[in-house]
């Protein structure tokens, strides 16, 4: 009897267990996300009161950009590509400014050294002379001819550029002029009168 019990015990210990194996708990993957950006670096594409002017680069709240600037087309994100394009555009603008200034300086030298025409009494006269002599159009509003009231030296100016102004000197003198006047009887009368003469720096 003892041996039988021992065998049964051994057999029962080697028999496979009918109890189900415990299930493994599902693993939970946690991914840490970075903080949501609260600000955006933008460039304004239009003037906005109390915010900035077109072309300004600003740091604005993300909600302001998302809800106002972007839908209304008032700004764009300042990406490296946009920044590079801005730099290239600024270089083009500076080159054009330099070219215009150099052209104005050359034109000023022409106006200040040419002696082919007398300086006129009013701005429109000077504009007409420049057109006929040099085939160039000049805005009358850029021309300043001083009012001549007495003898002396005057300066006529042509504003060719914010940094370039052509200056032409005028000397006003008085000379005695002989004049012939015809009377009612057909006779000629000779008289002398004093006349103001305006000369430029070329005589």
Automatic annotation (TrEMBL):
<protein>
    <recommendedName>
        <fullName>Large ribosomal subunit protein bL9c</fullName>
    </recommendedName>
</protein>
<keyword id="KW-0689">Ribosomal protein</keyword>
<dbReference type="InterPro" id="IPR009027">
    <property type="entry name" value="Ribosomal_bL9/RNase_H1_N"/>
</dbReference>
<dbReference type="GO" id="GO:0006412">
    <property type="term" value="P:translation"/>
</dbReference>
<feature type="coiled-coil region">
    <location>
        <begin position="83"/>
        <end position="110"/>
    </location>
</feature>
<dbReference type="InterPro" id="IPR020594">
    <property type="entry name" value="Ribosomal_bL9_bac/chp"/>
</dbReference>
<keyword id="KW-0175">Coiled coil</keyword>
<keyword id="KW-0687">Ribonucleoprotein</keyword>
<dbReference type="GO" id="GO:0005840">
    <property type="term" value="C:ribosome"/>
</dbReference>
<keyword id="KW-0699">rRNA-binding</keyword>
<feature type="domain" description="Ribosomal protein L9">
    <location>
        <begin position="52"/>
        <end position="79"/>
    </location>
</feature>
<dbReference type="InterPro" id="IPR036935">
    <property type="entry name" value="Ribosomal_bL9_N_sf"/>
</dbReference>
<dbReference type="InterPro" id="IPR020069">
    <property type="entry name" value="Ribosomal_bL9_C"/>
</dbReference>
<feature type="region of interest" description="Disordered">
    <location>
        <begin position="1"/>
        <end position="25"/>
    </location>
</feature>
<dbReference type="GO" id="GO:1990904">
    <property type="term" value="C:ribonucleoprotein complex"/>
</dbReference>
<dbReference type="Pfam" id="PF03948">
    <property type="entry name" value="Ribosomal_L9_C"/>
</dbReference>
<comment type="similarity">
    <text>Belongs to the bacterial ribosomal protein bL9 family.</text>
</comment>
<dbReference type="InterPro" id="IPR000244">
    <property type="entry name" value="Ribosomal_bL9"/>
</dbReference>
<dbReference type="InterPro" id="IPR020070">
    <property type="entry name" value="Ribosomal_bL9_N"/>
</dbReference>
<dbReference type="Pfam" id="PF01281">
    <property type="entry name" value="Ribosomal_L9_N"/>
</dbReference>
<feature type="compositionally biased region" description="Low complexity">
    <location>
        <begin position="8"/>
        <end position="25"/>
    </location>
</feature>
<dbReference type="GO" id="GO:0019843">
    <property type="term" value="F:rRNA binding"/>
</dbReference>
<keyword id="KW-0694">RNA-binding</keyword>
<dbReference type="GO" id="GO:0003735">
    <property type="term" value="F:structural constituent of ribosome"/>
</dbReference>
<dbReference type="InterPro" id="IPR036791">
    <property type="entry name" value="Ribosomal_bL9_C_sf"/>
</dbReference>
